[in-house]
Amino acid sequence: MNAPLLQIDDLRVSVAGTAVLHGVSLTVRAGEVHAIMGPNGSGKSTLAHVLAGRPGYTITGGAVRFDGTDLLAMAPEERARAGLFLGFQYPVEIAGVNNAYLLKAALNARRRQRGEAEIDAFDFLNMVRAKMRVMQIDEALLTRGVNEGFSGGEKKRNEILQMLVLEPRLAVLDETDSGLDIDALKVVGRGINTLRSPDRAVALVTHYQRLLDHVVPDQVHVLARGRIVRSGDRELALELERRGYDWLLEAAAAVA
Amino acid sequence: MSGNTELSALFDRGYEHGFVTDIESDTIAAGLDESVVRLISARKREPKFLLDWRLRAFAHWRQMREPHWAHLHYPPIDYQAISYFSAPKPRGDAPKSLADVDPKLLETYAKLGVPLHERARLAGVAVDAVFDSVSVATTFKSRLAEAGVVFCPFSEAVHSHPELLEQYLGSVVPYTDNFYATLNCAVFSDGSFVYVPPGVRCPMELSTYFRINAANTGQFERTLIIADAGSHVSYLEGCTAPMRDENQLHAAVVELVALDDAQIKYSTVQNWYPGDAEGRGGIFNFVTKRGECRGRNSRISWTQVETGSAITWKYPGCVLRGENSVGEFYSVATANNHQQADTGTKMIHIGANSRSTIVSKGISAGHGQNTYRGLVKIMPSAHGARNFTRCDSLLLGSQCGAHTFPYLESRNALATVEHEASTSRISEDQLFYCQQRGLGPEDAVNMIVSGFCREVFKELPMEFAVEAQNLLAVTLEGAVG
Amino acid sequence: MSALERLLGEFEAQPAPAGARLAAAQALRTHGLPTRREENWRYANLRALEGVARFLPAAPPAPGTRLPPLPEALAGYTRLVFVDGRLTTAWPQPDAAQITRLPMDAAVAGDAAATMFETTGDGRMGLIARLFAPDPLSLRIAGPAALELIFVTTSGAAGSYAEIAIEIATGAQVALVERHLGCAAATLPPEAPASLNCSNLRLRLAADAQLRHTRLQQAAGNALHYHTLSASLGDRGSYSLAHISAGDGSDRSSAQIRLQGREATVRIRALAAACDSGIADAQFTVLHEAPGTRSDQLFRGIASDRAHISCSADVQVLPGAPGSRVLQSLRGLIDGKGAEVNLRPRLTIDTDDIQAAHGATTGRLDEDLLFYLLSRGLEPAAARSLLKWAFLGEAFGAIEPPALRRAAELAAAARLSDAPATELLQ
């Protein structure tokens, strides 16, 4: 078995004095796809944000190791350069900065980290264009401002495009499926599958199981009230689809 | 990590162009009275009309009171402590070519990256280099002469084209205009003169590098650009200054005249010494710039990137007299540390169907105070006139200020004036997003800021756009941390 | 002699003034009246002040003098009527149990910030009201109340002045209506000198107090109105001001609203409709002094014929007010050869945690909309009036109760060159 890529041990997090995660433990190995599911307000997005180092969260306990190093001690950009990618639920718009520029700057930051030379502009464009075709993104979007005036679906596809270009070791995708129609969901699923490989891992944070029809997970975890209340395989997701979350919440309440 | 503390530590690089060239200056003793005005005029062997004009301006200036504005704060200027004339000492006679120019001066230009030698030719830029007050070298004269374009030091134009001067000097900015412009009229030292004859498209970008050098030397440049019917000209003005601990006054006047179907594009990158981190020293930049679209279908476009000076006070404006004339103003102004920038534009619509566009981007950091002040005035004759103004402010830090003071004055029922403005800081979400993609906070801020300024940068000629982008990065370094 | 010298002369000729009045005279002597060189008075009609023949207030109307007809009463409101600045309603009113009357000098002394505004700031015109107001009225409102103040002028030959201070207690909800009817045109010969009307209104809202304030300004032909308003808000205080200027004379309103308490909110809806040579000039300053404060200013004005309309909206966010939000929208329409619209939206921002935006436009009716309506078969005049009415609509929306809104709409409609169809009026 592979060494763990991501190892979360008893992670406790609070926001503005209120505890949100009450001791989450999770191990993700290279080659695996994990789905982290749960009802609204369960702490799914908090977990994703804390892994990426978003400001505003207080770590009150526990540890996270990424590829053997202390993830929580790293600045957000260091995490990114080390190969951790967060697909945002609500990607921001940055007026005046074009997509191609951001993508290239991000890629070069990652390459420098690995001791590689900056990518040639021509190679870059060819590579990005090929991946845009996979994601069915109009090439014209490359020269537009980052996410500026994009539809909800375009923003999500653009997130996956960035992931494909940056080739992270671990992609944490926060509600990437929300707001997508069936066709777009297929495209996004295909994009994620493109990234799957024995040395990479994906954590899908999602409310619904429908994305899992396209990206079949190795493990499914249910996060509720700041704890992982159950883990299982793909069957668990289907069961949730049938039964909802309430039965698990009741079980969790009984434990707490 | 809070976005604010993040944003307030990225800001400390010394002024790159901080050095003083040791050249003997031929300087008139400090002080100002009528005899100084006469002396300046005599030294330049000016015709009587010009001396009379200077004297009228001086008499008027003595009646004027120095303006004070609510949002500018600076110690009083002692106008008697300023020397009103300073010129690098000519060796023998005036330099005929670059070989005649003081090598030290050339060295200075090299440090500044002024493309004066072959680099200049390669860059396609004609440089009328102003060192202190007197122009010392003018290149590409022959190529311009072939096209019939006159591009020379003002003091030379006084002798070569007195009739143009008499006709146009003061016709856009009258000698009574404002305290600093009036002072300039009385004591202006030198500057640039451009005349583009009818139908001529100026074959190259015209460029002047200004530099303030001798201590306590007020700079009173005067620029006059006349674009005759159907002509086109693009003029670049770039400024750097040596490190000084005393405030230096700069009160330039720029007048532009565009006749029928003529176009003038005037671009400025202003990077004078802003003072140190505590606000000591730095240039007081009180400049009057105005263009008149005198003819039908004429167009005047001002683009400026203002990163320097302790105090900047300038409102490049357009008087849109001609029918269908167009005025444009694109501006990026930054105020960091203790800088104060008070800038904007005036668009006066007189001609029918005249149009104007204003895009202003203000960035405040440290203790900087950035003010946009703009007037759009529609006169009763301006049927169908249109203005659109977009004015955005970005705040980096909690000690700085961003102020927006537009005036919309309309007296025509068929005219439209539109103004939009916003003020915000770089959002923590944007910063985090960029960081999550692997960019350091400083790079992220630079990227977001240049995105904010893009609309203006794209109006600059290419070589200036690059310089402006670099300047901005240097200016705002340390704004995040 | 200048207006200032004359008015101070008339004031001093009165028997022994004291207290706040004396201080007001002193302040006027020291700081003078505003001039057009001052930023916030750039578009003001100050020259007309020089044409005022007599500053002293009118004598009490002779018994039996017929008052101009008063507007219909607003249900639920306590009405106070001032004739030439004199309170003619018996006080206390039985339906105003929540309201207590206090000495004016104490109210003036107790509000240093408002005093600063009046002595050195844009509130100086309010000092004229203080000098001469025959019946200063200072009220404290403890609980829910609705108050209607009506100001009527009967004579053009003398001044009419009102000085009013209202303090609203913690959590109280108050509706305040102010109607300035000026001098009924019929009672004045057209060549009569300008009649001067000055009011000075001070409002103080304690924590959680709410005030909905509507001011309807309908100056008659040669009336000259200067209104001064200062308001301060405590924590979570909420103030909504609807200001309608729809008169034939000249009016100027100066207001300063201070958001001193956390999360205090002010919402201003101002509307001006002027025709002939009417002048409507409004100036609103909002100071954000505490964290999380909000302000929202909206102005809509239509200048017809030779009328001049101006609006200066000045918002200052001070360093102690992070998390503030500011919105300004000023729009003017010009509809006459000699008409003029001046807009001056100003933002002064000294803190970085802020979202501020403003927009201002002057111009004509939207050609595309006009074409759309014409292509649907509307008469040009009807289409224009419809669009003008839509343009003003946003500002009317804030006016309550409906009877007052109707009065405001009728007043504004009378000042448009294309009268709106009656069915457009509420």
Concise description?
The complex is a heterotrimer of chains A (256), B (481) and C (426). Chain A has 8 helices and 12 strands. With 256 residues, chain A is an alpha/beta fold.
Biggest interface goes to: B-C, 38 and 37 residues
The radius of gyration over CA of chain C amounts to: 21 Å
Low-confidence stretches of chain C: none
Average pLDDT reading of chain C? 88
Number of domains of chain C: 1
Secondary structure: helix percent of chain B: 10-25%
Structure description:
- The complex is a heterotrimer of chains A (about 260), B (about 475) and C (about 425).
- With about 260 residues, chain A is α/β, with parallel strands linked by helices.
- Chain A is about 35% helix and about 30% strand.
- In chain A, the strands form three sheets. Chain A has a six-stranded mixed β-sheet, sandwiched between helices. Chain A has a four-stranded antiparallel β-sheet with strand order 2-1-4-5, covered by helices on one side.
- In chain A, strand 9, helix 6 and strand 10 form a beta-alpha-beta unit.
- Chain A is globular, with a radius of gyration of 18 Å.
- Chain A starts with a strand and ends with a helix.
- In chain B, about 25% of the residues lie in helices and about 35% in strands.
- Chain B has twelve helices and 23 strands.
- In chain B, strands 5, 6, 8, 10, 11, 13, 15, 16, 18, 20 and 22 form an eleven-stranded mixed β-sheet that branches.
- Chain B is globular and about 65 Å long.
- Chain B starts with a helix and ends in a 5-residue tail after the last helix.
- Chain C has one domain.
- Chain C is built from nine helices and 19 strands.
- In chain C, a hairpin with a 2-residue loop joins strand 1 and strand 2.
- Chain C is globular, with a radius of gyration of 21 Å.
- The mean pLDDT of chain C is about 90.
- Classes of the chains: A alpha/beta (about 260), B alpha/beta (about 475), C alpha/beta (about 425).
- Chains in contact: A-B, B-C.
